[in-house]
UniProtKB/TrEMBL annotation:
The active site is at E139. The gene is def. This is Peptide deformylase. Pfam families: Pep_deformylase. HAMAP family: Pep_deformylase. Fe cation binds at C95, H138, H142. Removes the formyl group from the N-terminal Met of newly synthesized proteins. Requires at least a dipeptide for an efficient rate of reaction. N-terminal L-methionine is a prerequisite for activity but the enzyme has broad specificity at other positions.
Length: 178
């Protein structure tokens, strides 16, 4: 199921391992532009290709824009977490593909990510204890078929899924949080 161009849970595309990108083609560049539009229109701070129905390793992230004028997402192709702390920090997370709810997720509070940009340059992103740190991990999870539901213990997952169904019944749309 899709809404506002965003694939919604429990769509099976959100649970699949995505293929690495072998070549940056005009089709990939067009997809990036479409994803930028979708993320902005749905008030997101990160978006992974499977969330728009494409099963490839592509993520965009912009955690600090306030308007279209300062909106300039990072493009991460084939991102890999190369370092992460053992220290975890809980954070309230939302997801464009699971609208209407937030879930408390514990993740490493420091990560280093390597990925290629649209010019095929290898880039390195480092984040600690902030939204960027959470967003990088959340979006990379999507590339491996992991949604925030899978980061919860079984009891929390049942509760979150019930909340999600209630939110959808109330008309929640991508970008809506509790």
């Amino acid at each position: 199921m899709e809404m506002n161009g965003i694939v919604l849970s429990p769509d099976p595309r959100l649970r699949q391992e995505c293929e690495p990108i072998k070549e940056i083609t005009p089709k990939i560049e067009e997809l990036v532009e479409r994803m930028k539009d979708q993320m902005f229109e749905n008030s997101g701070c990160g978006l992974a290709a499977p969330q728009v129905g494409e099963l490839i390793q592509l993520v965009i992230v912009d955690v600090d824009y306030s308007s279209r004028e300062d909106y300039d997402p990072y493009v991460l192709i084939n991102p890999v977490i190369v370092e992460q702390s053992e220290t975890k920090r809980p954070s309230s997370e939302g997801c464009l593909s699971i609208p209407g709810i937030n879930c408390e997720i514990s993740r490493p509070d420091h990560v280093v990510v390597e990925a290629y940009d649209l010019d095929a340059n290898l880039m390195r992103y480092e984040a600690s204890g902030d939204l960027m740190c959470v967003c990088l991990q959340h979006e990379i999870d999507h590339l491996h078929g992991i949604t925030m539901f899978e980061r919860l213990d079984p009891q929390q997952r049942v509760h979150a899924m019930r909340e999600y169904q209630d939110a959808l019944a109330r008309g929640a749309k991508p970008g809506d949080t509790e």
